[in-house]
Amino acid sequence: MAATCSRKLHGVKLALFGLHPFERPFLDSANLEHGHELVDMGARLGLQTAALADGFPAISLFAHDCGDRATLERLVTGGTRLLALRSAGFNHVDLVAAGELGLTVARVPAYSPNAIAEHAIGRLLTVVRKLHKAVQRTRELDFSLEGLMGFDLAGKTAGIVGTGKIGAQVARILLGFGCHVVAVDPAPSAELAGLGVRYVELGELLETSHVISLHCPLTPATHHLIDAAALARTRPGLVLINTCRGGVVDTRALIAGLKSKHLGGLALDVYEVEDGVFFRDLSTEGLDDDILARLLTSPHRSRRACPPHSRRHDEARGVATLPTLLMAMRRHARVRGCSGARGPKPAQSSGRAGCGAATGSRAGPRRPKLRLRPRRSVDT
Length: 380
Known about the structure:
The chain has helices at residues 2-8, 24-31, 69-77, 95-101, 113-128, 131-139, 165-176, 190-195, 202-208, 228-232, 251-259, 290-297, 315-331; strands spanning 13-16, 37-40, 58-61, 82-85, 104-106, 157-161, 180-184, 198-199, 211-214, 238-242, 263-268. By secondary structure, the protein is α/β, with parallel strands linked by helices.
């Protein structure tokens, strides 16, 4: 049965929404031995563009596409049965609606944790050692040293929120720097504990850490996890790194912390309201978002000219994505009507669509199981 369905799946039409130029070469390379028809829709997924997928049994969407209930209902009307996410996060898809509509949802369980972890550490070093200021001064032929003094990470306490594949690698790197590493995760890692990572409650992590790096998914439970109340519990001069999801932090609270100088440094490559900004060249248009503009002009923030989500723009991400999608197709052969093929057993999940907003409930109607080895601990 599996072999029969595998043959039938050769040449499946897959609609690609929200496709970026850097993704296509990797997708085409990985598809050479499979022969699927990968069609770039030339648009982001939403209610107004869902009709483009009519006749496609499977579609693939990116983190900034919209998979809310109305969009999913329109996709089902056109014959779509599989949603293959080109991301580890799934907060942009309404899993409750997907389960009710009989849709299968697959994601990339992990890609390039080393690249993301190293990127987070790079941002941490940029802030701690004020490299962004030094580079800017050098360009202006200012070789003075005033205001460029940083501090040693060795001996400092580093807090890691989420020790999945990415957070675990960040913890290992920080241990190498000589940090005392504390962590929060619903599924503590025995391996990390053996290396010296100490698992604590969130309150203790906030109160004891000199630097905090966030590596958790965006769920109703983690939305605005770092807000004004949380920041009030932290050490003065805290350095905060966020490379997971923008909604995990309250952006206005971060700006207030920078203005009061309670936050000593802030490095982000995600933003709470990325829609319409990230992955676009706005150099000639300017920004309409006053909050983002305030962040970009703060003297306390890392101003490195890095594109949003730049940690993900590497070969490992491209190579990992399509094989995962193809595996999802083989495991859910019903997208081509293989007799006897069954959909996934509904399972609980901790995310729900908001198309940019983190909303939803942990309880509710049946939900599709996120296939392909879902992680047991939090990560992005």
